[in-house]
Design goal:
Strand order of the largest sheet: 4-1-3-2-5-6
Oligomer: single chain
Order of helices and strands: EHHEEHEHHHHEEH
Shape: globular
Structural class: alpha+beta
Helix content: 40-55%
Distance between the termini: 47 Å
CATH architecture of one domain: 2-Layer Sandwich
Radius of gyration: 21 Å
CATH class of one domain: Alpha Beta
Number of strands: 6
Strand content: 15-25%
CATH topology of one domain: Alpha-Beta Plaits
CATH superfamily of one domain: tRNA(His) guanylyltransferase (Thg1)
Largest sheet: 6 strands, antiparallel
Length: about 240
């Protein structure tokens, strides 16, 4: 019956980088069930950052980026010999398990994440993450916008109002009512990055009888990531 497993040998191209993007399934319902604070629930984001750290430790990507219920992982050394079935099933299930473990709450329904594999060239890595970071900003504006409107109108009226507004309209509405999005926390606007960073360590060299500086790599959760550009990814040696 092994021959019926027609997709089991499907692999990503050899020696290529890929992005795995995960999205929470029906997280609007989950947010309601967990009574998450709107527009941003700090505990939810702490959990998502820990899930990303778990993913980094388990699968060794070059970079992980998250906002809302979305996670993108950039790989140069692709796990599971590049087998797409394995990548999608194992990484999505690991993500859901990590989320439940860190949330430590009763769930009405088991949380789940979907997963997709995206082959990517070095030339397109920055473009991809800029695209997702732009979406993080859109999410930030709209989340604050609908939260403000629902504080003034019934839910159905607020939903109808925001559907007829573009991003600049929402931004202007918030500003006119004393909400300056420039002042909100960076992670709410730009997302969160997880990557390896060198840490300076000062030790004492007994043989030479003097202090000695060394650098050790550690996993860094960056809540203050910049607007993405070539320089950021060059510093991580992701691109040349």
């Amino acid at each position: 019956m092994k021959e019926y497993e027609v997709y089991s040998s499907l692999k990503v191209p050899k020696n290529s980088k890929i992005i795995m993007r995960l999205d929470g399934r029906s997280f609007h319902t989950l947010a309601r069930d967990l009574e998450l604070i709107k527009p941003y629930d700090e505990n939810f984001y702490k959990v998502m950052s820990q899930v990303c750290r778990d993913l980094f430790e388990e699968f060794s990507p070059l970079f992980v980026y998250t906002f809302s219920d979305e996670i993108s992982l950039l790989f140069d050394k692709v796990p599971f010999d590049g087998r797409i079935e394995k990548l999608n099933s194992v990484i999505a299930s690991f993500t859901a398990s990590s989320f439940v473990m860190h949330y430590n709450r009763e769930f009405k329904k088991p949380p789940a994440f979907d997963s997709r594999v995206i082959p990517i060239s070095d030339d397109d890595i920055v473009k991809y993450f800029k695209w997702r970071q732009d979406e993080s900003w859109v999410n930030c504006v709209n989340s604050h916008g609908i939260s403000y409107l629902k504080s003034k109108y019934p839910n159905n009226v607020a939903n109808d109002k925001i559907k007829g507004m573009n991003l600049s309209d929402v931004h202007e509405l918030l500003f006119e009512n004393g909400i300056n999005l420039n002042n909100v926390e960076t992670y709410k606007k730009r997302g969160i990055g997880i990557y390896r960073k060198n840490k300076k360590v000062v030790g004492f060299n007994k043989k030479e009888n003097k202090d000695q500086v060394s650098y050790r790599s550690h996993i860094f959760i960056d809540w203050e990531i910049p607007i993405f550009g070539d320089e950021f990814f060059k510093e991580m040696d992701v691109i040349d």
